[in-house]
Amino acid sequence: MHHTALYHAVLAAIADGNTTRGGIATYLQRKSTDLAHALGVLQDSGLLSYHRDAFRKNRSAYRIAEPLLTFYHAIMQPAWGDLERPGRAEPVWRRSKQRFTAQIVGPHFEEICRQWARWHAEPETFAGRTPDQVASGTVSDPKVGKTLEVDVVAVGRDDDRGVLLALGEVKWQEAIDIGHIKRLEHVRDLLVSRGQPGAESARLLLFSGAGFSDQVIQRARSDSAIELVGLDRLYAGRE
Q: 116, 127, 197, 199: which could form a disulfide with 191 (CB 3.0–4.6 Å)?
């Protein structure tokens, strides 16, 4: 029973946005070494997945593999008292919609886009190359003292060397505008300055569930390095 409670606590911590082992331990007020067994069991059972940062190998994150579990821990469990009473479901949903989008739908859509890039994208998406790894990643920008998150990082293999094929931005309820392209271009420039193999020719992938601005569409037509992936292309292969 003790182990069951710990497993649920770990899932709740991750559902609340604590994805590193240190973050989970802080959330639960435990030592990180105390979590090794629980994290291992949850991974072995397929409830958790473990992901290394594409650019920082010493940085990793845990994700809940089943969105329904995230929904339970992030939305239902905190409001259980209200949900047990008739007529309370609608106000619970109203105050939970933003959390639902940010912590469940958004991250799950990002993972769908990574899986598409890894397994379903046509080779032309990567200039005829095929990625053998697709992950998320973080790139530090020393000039502003910030870390920039990249939703999709596609890497191919050139002999024994990893070569960057593409960087991607994912938005579920937000239309992609020219600012998103400029952000990815900035990340690409940072990687070029650091000598990242393949960075100079890396494609820019823009994924959106809400569409693309006219300026972005025009830019993509004139720049073969930019790929737009909307829902039609993502699910049915249509441009």
A: 199
